[in-house]
């Protein structure tokens, strides 16, 4: 009888260790996924000064649009890396400002024909696609961790060891979800 009880205790302990390790693995996947988003946001942020400079020469009197893009970039860069909701809001506002900047090309035919502007626009499009994939990966990793944290019996282990749910990288304003349309 004692062997049976001891066997059940060992089995329960082994199961608890397996659940703990699964939670750790899933949390690390979320960290990796957030790092991927952070890298793409940095790439986009690095492109913005070049894009603004290429537009400045053609649209010098469009100062408010250029200043808005610069301000949104600064605001997004100033947020802590782990502030998912804040970064989502700031990056959504930056995406809208970039959309207005890209729309300026319609008013300036020379800008539309500029090789530098076209190359930057193409690079920005690639970064936006990569960012979309990174967001999906992050949200999937966050979902997996959150399901584990909320499910029985892993929620017992998660609560005992302080695992916390990860927020999704969501865009609050539906207008921010739209990809800026630029026709050249």
Keywords:
mainly alpha, single chain, 184 residues, rod-shaped, de novo design (two linked rop proteins)
Question: Can you characterise this structure?
Answer:
This protein has 184 residues and is an all-alpha fold. It has a single domain (20-177), classed as Up-down Bundle (de novo design (two linked rop proteins)), CATH 1.20.1440.20. It has 7 helices and no strands. Helix 1 packs antiparallel against helix 2 (63-78), helix 1 (2-56) packs antiparallel against helix 5 (115-150) and helix 2 runs antiparallel to helix 3 (84-103). The radius of gyration is 23 Å and the shape is rod-shaped. 24% of the residues are buried. The model has no long low-confidence stretch (mean pLDDT 87).
Q: Quick one: CATH class?
A: Mainly Alpha
Structural class: mainly alpha
Spans where pLDDT lies below 50 across 5 or more residues:
none
Taking the alpha carbons of the first and last residues, their distance comes to 80 Å
* Backbone CA Rg: 23 Å
Strand content: under 5%
Series of H and E elements: HHHHHHH
Q: What is the count of helical runs?
A: 7
State mean pLDDT (0 to 100 scale): 87
The major pleated sheet works out as: none
Specify the CATH architecture.
Up-down Bundle
Count of β-strands: 0
Task: Kindly give the count of domains.
Answer: 1
How helix-rich are the residues, as a percent range? Answer: over 70%
């Amino acid at each position: 009888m004692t062997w049976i009880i001891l066997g059940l205790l060992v089995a329960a302990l082994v199961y608890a260790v397996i659940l703990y390790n699964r939670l750790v693995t899933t949390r690390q996947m979320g960290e990796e996924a957030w790092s991927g988003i952070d890298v793409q946001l940095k790439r986009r942020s690095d492109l913005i000064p070049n894009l603004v400079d290429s537009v400045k020469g053609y649209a010098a009197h469009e100062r408010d649009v250029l200043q808005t893009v610069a301000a949104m970039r600064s605001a997004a860069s100033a947020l802590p890396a782990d502030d998912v909701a804040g970064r989502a809001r700031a990056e959504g506002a930056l995406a809208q400002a970039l959309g207005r900047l890209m729309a300026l090309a319609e008013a300036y035919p020379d800008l539309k024909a500029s090789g530098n502007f076209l190359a930057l626009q193409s690079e920005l499009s690639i970064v936006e696609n990569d960012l979309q994939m990174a967001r999906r990966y992050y949200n999937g990793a966050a979902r997996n961790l959150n399901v584990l944290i909320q499910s029985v019996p892993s929620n017992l282990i998660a609560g005992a060891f302080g695992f916390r749910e990860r927020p999704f990288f969501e865009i609050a304003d539906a207008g921010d979800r739209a990809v800026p349309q630029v026709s050249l």
